[in-house]
Amino acid sequence: MTALPAGASPAGSAALDYAALGWPVLPIAPRGKIPLTAHGLKDASTDREVIGEWWSRWPTANVGVATGKPGPTVIDLGGPLAGMSG
Is this prediction's pTM over 0.85? Predict the structure, then answer.
């Protein structure tokens, strides 16, 4: 099993934590939403070795989580009503 190198980024460690929950992850561009892998969302994985290789290659990548089964269900609130309650 490939582990992240010593001093690995918190994002790489978080990616492994999410994968342990069964949520497929992929590296995305820092401060963005663009996948860094060749096939984008289709490359999302729970394989620790693959994830370790990705974050060794792109240590500053953010974590993308493929939503919907088997990943989490997500509701993204945006626009003028986001954050309003009541």
Answer: no
